[in-house]
Amino acid sequence: MSDPGDASPISDREDDPRRWLGSTPLLDLEDPKLRLRVRALTQLSKTEREKALALYAFVKRIPFAKPFKMRLHTGREVLDAGRGDAPDKVTLLVAMLRLARLPARIRYVSLRGEILRGLTTGVSQAARPVLEVWVHGQWLRTDTYIFDAAYMAAARQRLKDQGWEWGYGIHVGGAMLWDALSSAYVGGFPTEQDPMVVEDLGLYADPLAFVSSRAYRENHPRLARAVHWNVLAPGMERAIRDLRQDMEPGAPSPSPAPSRKPT
């Protein structure tokens, strides 16, 4: 079998869910705190779906943030921090799902920078980790774990107020939750149909496998990419904080902006 970090297409014969259960340095499935937390969260779950939902709900509740960092965080570090961005949260969620014996992996896609309008204008494209988890005999996808409920509500309201269709990482009509029965996307469309998706970048075990892949290294020097996102991070954190404050009682509504569809 090919290495889980390989982004090349995977045939049906090779796509055995059992190959997506192992540990990696980022996932660190031997960490005792992670193991105990998964056991506590799933102890009353009787089905695969119930386990998946319990772990998904825990990670979704972790506040979305854009912290300054010069390296990727392990699942345990994300758990301890109690906040994180998409790579942070998917690392923790994949680790927890695998500890619960649910095969899990990441499909990275490249999105048009317009999806981040309102948070930053500093990128032309951005990679997004879409979770894929094997539940009751099928791979289901979701990226709704990225944004906590408070952020999602504020972002959706801001889009409506400004007359935007996309921005703040989501689509105004995108899914807010995942039910572990079908796939769900904050972008409002399946990956193959999403007008914001520029390219499917393949399957990976964790974010480190993605940034270590040949395709990524050829186009994105890792240090330069990390520095670029860290330059943007303070502004994104301010935008996230301002967005959350919109939901506080008595907060003034932002002025509407002209609607503009992606070109």
**C-alpha Rg, in Å?**
18 Å
> How many domains in all?
1
Q: What is the CATH fold-level name?
A: C8orf32 fold
Profile the largest sheet: 4 strands, antiparallel
How many angstroms does the end-to-end distance come to? 41 Å
For the record, the CATH architecture stands as Roll
Write out the strand line-up for the largest beta sheet, numbering strands in chain order: 3-2-1-6
Supply the number of helical segments. 8
Tell how many strands the DSSP assignment holds.
Answer: 6
Which parts are unreliable, with pLDDT below 50 for 5 consecutive residues or more? 1-13, 253-263
Q: Quick one: CATH class?
A: Alpha Beta
Q: Report the β-strand fraction as a percent range.
A: 5-15%
**H/E series, N to C?**
HHHHEEEHEEEHHH
Q: What is the helix fraction of residues, given as a range?
A: 25-40%
Overall 3D shape: globular
Structure keywords:
36% helix, alpha+beta, 14% strand, four-stranded antiparallel β-sheet, disordered N terminus, 263 residues, 8 helices, disordered C terminus, two-stranded antiparallel sheet, C8orf32 fold, globular
Structure, described:
A 4-stranded antiparallel beta sheet has the order 3-2-1-6. Helix content is 36%, strand content 14%. It contains 8 helices and 6 strands. With 263 residues, it is of the alpha+beta class. Helix 5 crosses helix 8 (222-245).
